[in-house]
Known about the structure:
It contains five helices and ten strands; from the N terminus they run βαβαβββαβαβαβββ. The chain has helices at about 30-45, 55-60, 125-135, 150-160, 170-180; strands spanning about 10-15, 50, 90-95, 105-110, 110-120, 140, 165-170, 185-190, 220-225, 230-240. Strands 1, 2, 3, 4, 5, 6, 7, 8, 9 and 10 form a ten-stranded mixed β-sheet that branches. The longest helix has 14 residues, at about 30-45. The chain is globular and about 60 Å long.
Amino acid sequence: xxxxxxxxxxxxxxxxxxxxxxxxxxxxxxxxxxxxxxxxxxxxxxxxxxxxxxxxxxxxxxxxxxxxxxxxxxxxxxxxxxxxxxxxxxxxxxxxxxxxxxxxxxxxxxxxxxxxxxxxxxxxxxxxxxxxxxxxxxxxxxxxxxxxxxxxxxxxxxxxxxxxxxxxxxxxxxxxxxxxxxxxxxxxxxxxxxxxxxxxxxxxxxxxxxxxxxxxxxxxxxxxxxxxxxxxxxxxxxxxxxxx
Length: 244
């Protein structure tokens, strides 16, 4: 644990040589060595939880988005909800306004253990959405009033769920938010020798509307390894962000 019982957080990403984490290059067969290495390293980190931003969660583990009624008769208190589960692995999604759609309260897919779903919400999430999550048995925590409070979220994940290590897996905006709050303890970057030259796709870090200020970040290199087919595995530690 790191400070106030928050988990140790590793930002682990697969990127092109120009730092993009999505794009046309993902369709190339030459990506496979990097994709394989990314999955292997993710397993070796042995994290209790994997954390996604809302856009990434909608693409990789949720069922897109859901429309909820604006007004309901029954009000739901803005308190954390810990659903009963026997699982000790977690998929965590930041969802400030409560828009993600789920069919069940766990995620199970190749390469990842069966994991209980936890949502990170703000007080802007509607009563109907909170009731929806409770009905599915999905846990959630409230972290922030109007905007996401990443530090509160991290501390609650450690204190309420006993999570000791989180793998932060994008997208770029949520990575940046955690970086700016001094919450990334390590950056693990699997870089493939590919690019598609696009400028309209997400990068490892993208400035976020949740941040009150944006401080350029510096890193210290911990290790570098050359993997198959000229793929590189780079490990860094942030060194000039508050809390570091």
